[in-house]
Amino acid sequence: MTNTTTSGPDRLTRGEVARTLLWSVVVISAVANMAASFGGADTWVHLVCGAVTVLGAGTLAVRSLRGRR
User: 5 — phi, psi (to 5°)?
Assistant: First the structure.
């Protein structure tokens, strides 16, 4: 009988998925902010992109610091 619910080394954890999604959000929002700069977008677009980037980076930093304890 085989165990189908094993959590071997190939299995992704929720933390790894969350970290990958947060990095994706940070990169996408930073690129969107850069594109808005080159495109001459309104100020609110820059503010939204910057806020999303800061929140994502801050969340990554907090998760990293909490993981060291």
Answer: -110, 30
Q: 18-54 burial, b for 16+ CB within 10 Å, e for fewer?
A: ebeebeebbeebbebbeebeeeeeeeebeeebeebbe
CB 36 within 8 A of CB 45: yes
With 0.85 as the threshold, say if the pTM is over it: no
Residue type, 47: L
- Is the pLDDT at 3 greater than 80? The verdict is no
CA angle 42, 46, 48 (to 5 degrees): 110
